[in-house]
Design goal:
It is a single chain. It is built from twelve helices and nine strands. It is of the alpha/beta class. The protein has a six-stranded mixed β-sheet with strand order 1-2-3-4-6-9, with helices on both faces. Strands 5-7-8 form a three-stranded mixed β-sheet. α10 packs antiparallel against α11. It is globular and about 75 Å long. Bound molecules: 3-methylmercaptopropionate-CoA (MMPA-CoA) (1HE).
Length: 263
């Protein structure tokens, strides 16, 4: 398991917590950290049913490590391309991985930090969260999937405006735009994420897998292809084992609460 100084991993029953642990650099993502994230999400620990990504310090993530990457004057376009693909692979393992991922956002959710957040399925934002894509102001471009994931969440036109104007969205605006699904007071993000993760962990594992691996992909498809894929997905999820027994126990539980007691 990729347990480095920069990525702290902790298991709490079916929920595995992954903490970005570079608070002195506002959790900016350097080479070692993106590799560790990619390795972790390639092979989550056995028994994991939900993953929570959270961060040490006051900020979720300041994005790309500008000092490490940009200061290297001899970088070639191919070096940058390969690095961007490394980010894409890591974040694809999050979005289309084995289990749902909940993120806990706070402070800066900036550039590559926003790309990381956008690859997670449920985003809990503490009230201190703010969202920025300052790449154009830094004279660079996004490279960790924002043109696909962030543009889908907030709309391509709004992302263009956000990057050109350098505007900041606060937590409440992020909630309205779908960048966050919940806003909670400062310091309460992890508790909220654990509460949600506990519920998600109780869903059927095959059902969770189908939700995270199917819906976003179907939105890339034609109506015909999407509907057929949905039927295949239903065929798998409905027969994956848990469906029949869960539906039976749903009705059994309802009957037992309705039947008058013998006393
Ligand atoms: C960093 C980084 C970083 C901080 N790379 N070292 N991202 C940005 O353009 C965001 C740049 N950072 C900020 O806007 C601010 O640092 C924060 C709002 C996140 C936090 O502010 P603050 O006042 O709490 O901290 P600070 O004093 O600015 O920074 C503390 C330290 O973190 C300092 O290092 P120190 O050695 O002087 O103590 C900073 O240099 C360091 N630090 N952010 C490296 N990003 C796949 S492509 C994605 C492209 C992008 O992500 S572009 C967006 C980059």
């Amino acid at each position: 398991m990729a347990n480095t100084e920069l990525l702290r991993i902790e298991q709490r029953g079916p929920v595995t917590l992954v903490q970005l642990n570079r608070p002195d650099k506002r959790n900016a993502i350097n080479h070692e950290l993106i590799v560790a994230l990619g390795e972790f999400f390639a092979h989550p620990p056995d028994g994991t049913r939900v993953i929570i990504v959270h961060a040490a310090g006051e900020h979720f993530c300041a994005g790309l490590d500008l000092v490490e990457k940009i200061s290297k004057a001899d970088r070639t376009p191919f070096d940058v391309l390969r690095n961007s693909q490394r980010w894409h692979r890591a974040f694809e393992r999050i979005q289309f991985g084995e289990v749902p991922v909940v993120s806990v956002l706070k402070g800066g959710v900036i550039g590559g930090g926003m790309e990381l957040a956008a690859s997670t399925h449920i985003r809990v934002a503490e009230s201190t969260s703010f969202f920025q894509l300052p790449e154009a102001q830094r004279g660079i471009f996004v490279g960790g999937g924002a043109t696909v994931r962030v543009a889908r969440i907030i709309g391509a036109g709004r992302m263009v405006e956000m990057m050109l104007s350098g505007r900041t969205y606060d937590a409440q605006a992020g909630l309205n735009l779908g960048l966050a699904h919940y806003v909670v007071p400062q310091g309460q993000g992890l508790d909220k994420a654990l509460e949600i993760a506990g519920r998600v962990a109780q869903n059927g594992a095959a059902a969770n897998f189908t939700v995270i691996n199917t819906i976003e992909r179907i939105s890339d498809m034609s109506i015909n292809d999407g509907l057929l894929t949905e039927s295949y997905a239903a065929g798998m999820a409905h027969t994956a084992g848990e469906g029949t027994s869960r539906i039976a126990s749903f009705f059994k539980d309802r009957r037992s609460t309705r039947e008058p007691s013998a006393e």
